[in-house]
Amino acid sequence: MAKRFLLVTEEWAGSGHRMAAEALQEVLLEKEGARSARVVGGLKTASPGLRVLSHFFYRSMLRYGQPVWQRIYEQEEMLGSALTKALGWWLSARLTNQLLLEEKPDVVIATHAYCLSALAEAKRRVPKPFQLVCVPTDFHINRFWIHPEIDAYMVAHEQIAQILIDRYGISPEKIHVYGIPVRPAFTTALHTDKAAWKKQLGLVPDQFTVLIGGGEGGYGGVGQVVRELMLEEQPLQIVVVTGKNASLYKRLENLLSTKSNGHRFLLKGFEPQMWQWIGAADAYITKPGGITCAESLALKTPLILFHPLPGQEKHNCSFLLKQQAAILAETPVEIKEIIRSWRQPEKRDAFAGNLDKLGRPDAVYQIAHTLLQLTD
C-alpha cells in the first residue's frame, strides 16, 4: 500500500533545511510506494507567532551577537532538555491538532530539530502511529536531535554515527550513513564537466572561475572578498551570488560599475539553479552551511570557507578541515593567496582528490529508498 510522507522543516533559520526536505519530496514523489509527500514548516504550522519571534531572535543574534549565539548553542544539554520537555509538550498538542490528525502520515521526517521533540511527543498522542525519522543537514549532531521515539537517523558521515552510539547510546540499527540530501539536479550535474558548464552559462571555458556566495541571506563578508579579489593582478572570472540580500546586490552593483580591474564579473541575486554555477566553478568561496558544503562536495568543487556563522557552521568548518575537504581563510588576502595557488592545476587537482571521500551525490536517493522500506 502506498504511504503518506510528511516532511517537517523550518525556513526561518536558513534555506538548507527546507532544500533538504524539498529534495526528498521530489524523489519520494517519483516512487510508486509514495502516495503523498508534503513539506511543511513546523513552527509556521504550530505557532506562527513563535516562528516570527524565533526568526527575529536568530537574525538579531547573527547580526549583533554572534559570540553570544555561540555560547547559547554550546549549552546544548540544557537547551535540549528544555525543548524536549516544556516547549516540546506545548508544540506537540498544536502539531497534533493542526497537522497530524488531518494528514495521518505513515512517516514523518524532520530536517530541522526545532519541532523534533514535539513530533516525538505527538507520536505518543495520535491514534494512527507513524515512523519518526530525523535527517540532520550538517556534518555534526547535538542533543537537539536525540529522542527515544525517533525510529531512524539519516546522517552525513560515519563519525556522526559513532557520536550517536558513543555519546547518546543510540542503537546502531537505527542509524543510516548516507550523506546530506541534495537536490537530484546535483546528481545529474555530475555528468557535465566544468568547461561545458562554463560554456553553457556564457562564461569563458578556459578561464579560472571563482564563485562567491553567502547563502540565501548573503552573509559571509561577500563584499570584502570581492574588493580583495579585484586587486588580483591575473584576470579572474568571478561569479557573485548575493541570494535574497538586495542591499548587498546594490552595493556590489555600484562597486562593479565603476571598476573591474580586468576581471570578468557576473553578479547574480537569488539563484535557484546553483548546481550550474557550482559545477562551473574552479573554487567556491562561501560560509559553511551544511547543504552548501554538501552541494559543493557532490560536484567536486574545492571549497574556501570564510566567516562561518556560530553554531553548526563552526562545527561544519572544523569537520571539513579535519577531513582536508576545505580550506578556512581568516582574511580576504588569504583567499587571494589560495586562489593564486590553485591556478596551478596540479595543486588544485591534488586538493580536489580529497572531495571524493565526502561527496555523496546519491544521498537523497538512498534516504528515500530507506524511508520507503521503513514502513513495510
Automatic annotation (TrEMBL):
BP-aspect Gene Ontology terms: glycolipid biosynthetic process
Q: Where is the Diacylglycerol glucosyltransferase N-terminal domain?
A: 17-182
- Supply the alphabetized keyword list: Glycosyltransferase, Transferase
* InterPro entries attached to this UniProt entry: Diacylglyc_glucosyltr_N (IPR009695), Glyco_trans_28_C (IPR007235), Glycosyltransf_28_UgtP (IPR050519)
The cellular location(s) given in this protein's UniProt record come to: Membrane
Q: Name one Pfam family in it.
A: Glyco_tran_28_C
Alphabetically, the GO molecular function entries are: hexosyltransferase activity
What is the first-listed, main subcellular location in coarse terms?
Answer: membrane
Q: Give the matching SUPFAM superfamilies.
A: UDP-Glycosyltransferase/glycogen phosphorylase (SSF53756)
Which superkingdom does the taxonomy of this entry point to? Answer: Bacteria
Listed under GO cellular component are: membrane
Limits of the Glycosyl transferase family 28 C-terminal domain: 227-337
Q: Which family does it belong to?
A: Belongs to the glycosyltransferase 28 family.
Name of the protein described by the UniProt record: Probable glycosyl transferase
